[in-house]
Amino acid sequence: MEGIVLSQLHGSQSYVNLRMQRERFMKINVFKNRHRSSWQRSVRSAANDNTPFIWDDAAGLHANENFPLNHLQHCTNDYLGKKKRLGKDEVERRLVEYVQLSAENDRADIAIAACGHKLSRASLRRLLTGDLFVTQPGNVINILPFLIAIVTANRVNPDAIDNLEAEKAKAIYAAAMMPHGLEGYWGRYVHELMKILIDGLPMHLLVYPYIMTRIRQTCTSLALHLQQLRDEGQFLRAYSSSQ
Question: pTM score, two decimals?
Answer without folding.
Answer: 0.78
